[in-house]
Specification:
heterodimer; A: about 375 residues; OB fold (Dihydrolipoamide Acetyltransferase, E2P); 2 domains; six-stranded mixed beta sheet; globular; B: mainly alpha; MetI-like fold; 11 helices
Chain lengths: ~375, ~280
């Protein structure tokens, strides 16, 4: 097997008795955007700091491009980091900030360095601001200075710690696409740490979902969203309706479950790990649930009444009361119109249905 | 609320009066033609003339300045190192002891510091034959010892505020720790280092107690000279000397204030410009 570009092998990190990272193993391919996603204190930042060399793993090894990184100090790693606070040097101009790392490129001439700085400033569209001091530019521009500075020495690996967290929502969306296009143009491997699942889904080729120092699941955004392997991942990424359920039997390719909360039985996509009689969790995404006045032909149909609805413009969120559960369903407002054009209104009796393929059975 | 309490205004008035009337009367009496400091004998500038032609005063002034500059500089170097160590290295063997030892002079009565310095210098002379005579070098050493703590405190406070990430960023970009120190840490905390130096300089310049314990024959600093002259009665030339000092310090404070206000105004203007150009 070919050696992957970045291989993290059984890495753990303890601070005293607290285990911040527990036995993490994963690989990242060259030119990939890989996201470490998790809530605060899940160990994602500690893992990033171990990649940068600021922390040494308590156990395990990190290999970058085939080279063991153990004991290599931050200043000797071909890994650069974009800090969450951007960490712009306040006493230097934009230009000097971007060029700071280049002074260690002994082989470069002064002219080469200046050309490289100009190229980087052009890449992040900051050329007119080259002579400015950091306090003379806006937050979004500072973020781009940090990016240009980290890319200037052409690192093998770029680490981004919450790259968009400090920006406002509108700027964030714009910057997301800019980051992706810069990654494409430079071909540098990106590792992004984020707590924002939307950010991870749009930016990353693959995501590792972390919780309490452990990696829960690694996969493409689609895999993680559509095929979560645990209650934690299903609940962390997007919203989900979950119900307690018991496996009644196997009807290939489906699994029959008894779901007391819905007041009936459900057909769901089979999972090999489930056995008859086992208590499992049934998870259904709100947008996979169809809402209608009439009973649909779908195998999984349940009646309830609308308890609450929230209108978002492009879609509406319905909270539907069933015998022993409150189910959330997203309905797209495809037709334009006033309140009368809605699928259902407050206190209407409605039918909820979902395809067996949309029903996720979680054993863990 | 527009109406201010009359009581508070009176208290404020008394406060200012206690501060500034003595200084004002000193300035006025420095232009007194009479030899008696407390009897007005008409306007004259003769005390200023006699002051500037008095070699003793000029020598004392230069000695004081020399001691202040050297001790402030050494104290700033040592104090900055201690401040950085205390702020950055939160765990090392003997940190609590070190921190206590560094800050002890802040609360130690000056008389104690003075006596212990004196005893130390006498013992040193016995054991290693240095210092043979007390004077410039012993005063400077003593001043370094007690003014270092002020620099340490200021630098430590500034270091705790500053973002650790900017040093890590420099390290991440290829700089070794000592390069980070000179490229990033010191330039960023340079205002704190400057004010530490100024504070150490001022403290050294007007110290009487510790200086009188560590001085020797022939080494009279300006505060010691004033002190010894006042013991024989306040004469108008002392008033003149003190007036010059007040004016110098006052001019310095006003200048620093103007420079800082201008810098602040420029920074605000820069920030407004940045937000206009926000894209």
């Amino acid at each position: 097997m070919e050696e992957p570009f970045l291989r993290i092998e059984g890495v753990s990190k303890s601070f005293g008795v607290f285990q911040a990272v527990k036995d993490v193993s994963l690989t990242v391919g060259k030119g990939e955007i890989f996201a470490l996603l998790g809530g605060s204190g899940c160990g994602k930042t500690t893992l990033l700091r171990m990649l940068a060399g600021f922390e040494e793993p308590t156990a395990g090894k990190i290999f970058l491009d085939g080279r063991d990184m153990s004991g290599v100090p931050p200043w000797e790693r071909p890994v650069h980091m974009m800090f969450q606070s951007y960490a712009i040097f306040p006493h230097m101009t934009v230009e000097a900030n971007v060029g700071y790392g280049l002074k260690h490129e002994k082989a470069m001439s002064k002219a080469d360095r200046a050309a490289r700085v100009a190229e980087m400033l052009d890449l992040v569209q900051l050329t007119p601001f080259a002579k400015r001091k950091p306090h003379q530019i806006s937050g979004g521009q500072r973020q781009r200075v940090a990016l240009a500075r980290a890319l200037a020495r052409q690192p093998k690996l770029l680490l981004l710690d919450e790259p968009l967290a400090a920006l406002d929502k509108k700027l964030r969306e714009h910057t997301q696409f800019e980051l992706m296009s810069i990654q494409e143009r430079t071909g540098v491997t990106f590792i992004v740490v984020t707590h924002d699942q939307e950010e991870a889904m749009t930016l990353a080729d693959r995501i590792a979902v972390m919780d309490k120092g452990e990696v829960k699941q690694i996969g493409s955004p689609t895999e993680i969203y559509e095929f979560p392997n645990s209650r934690f991942v299903a609940g962390f990424i997007g919203s989900v309706n979950s119900f307690e359920a018991t496996v009644i039997g196997r009807e290939r390719p489906h699994l029959r479950l008894s779901v007391p909360g819905l007041g009936g039985e459900v057909l769901a996509r089979d999972v090999p790990a489930a056995v008859e009689g086992q208590k499992v969790t049934l998870a259904v995404r709100p947008e996979k649930i169809l809402l209608g006045k009439e009973r649909s032909a779908s195998a999984n149909s349940f009646q309830g009444h609308v308890k609450d609805l929230a209108y978002f413009g492009k879609d509406s969120l319905y909270r539907v009361a069933l015998p022993d559960a409150l189910v959330q369903a997203h309905a797209v407002n495809a037709r334009r119109g006033d309140e009368g054009a809605r699928v259902a209104d407050w206190n209407d009796d409605v039918w909820l249905s979902f395809e067996p393929a949309s029903a996720i059975v979680l054993v863990g | 609320m527009k109406r201010r309490s009359t009581f508070l205004m009176i208290v404020l008035g008394f406060g200012f009066a206690f501060f500034y009337i003595p200084i004002l009367s000193m300035i006025v009496y420095s232009f007194n033609a009479s030899r008696l400091a407390t009897v007005w004998g008409g306007f004259s500038t003769k005390w200023y003339v006699s002051l500037l032609s008095n070699d003793k005063v000029i020598d004392a002034l230069f000695l004081s300045l020399k001691i202040a500059v050297i001790s402030a500089t050494v104290a700033t170097i040592l104090g900055t190192m201690a401040g950085i160590a205390l702020a950055r290295f939160t765990k090392f063997r003997g940190r609590v002891l070190f921190s206590g030892l560094v800050t002890a002079p802040l609360i130690m009565p000056e008389v104690i510091t003075g006596i212990s310095s004196l005893i130390f210098f006498i013992l040193m002379a016995d054991w290693v034959g240095w210092p043979g005579a007390r004077g410039f070098s012993t005063i400077t050493l003593a001043h370094i010892t007690f003014s270092m703590v002020f620099v340490t405190t200021i630098v430590q406070a500034r270091m705790i505020q500053s973002d650790r990430a900017i040093e890590e960023a420099a390290m991440d970009l290829g700089s070794r720790p000592w390069q980070v120190m000179f490229d990033i840490t010191l330039p960023v905390i340079s205002p704190a280092i400057m004010s530490g130096w100024l504070l150490a300089f001022t403290i050294s310049l007007d110290d009487v107690v510790i200086t009188s314990f560590t001085t020797g024959p022939g080494s009279t600093t300006l505060p010691l000279l004033i002190w010894s002259k006042v013991k024989l009665g306040v004469t108008p030339d002392i008033n003149a000397l003190a007036t010059l000092m007040v004016l110098t310090v006052g001019a310095g404070v006003v200048a620093a204030g103007i420079i800082m206000t201008r810098a602040e105004r420029r920074r605000l203007a820069d920030e407004r410009m940045a937000f206009r150009n926000n894209d």
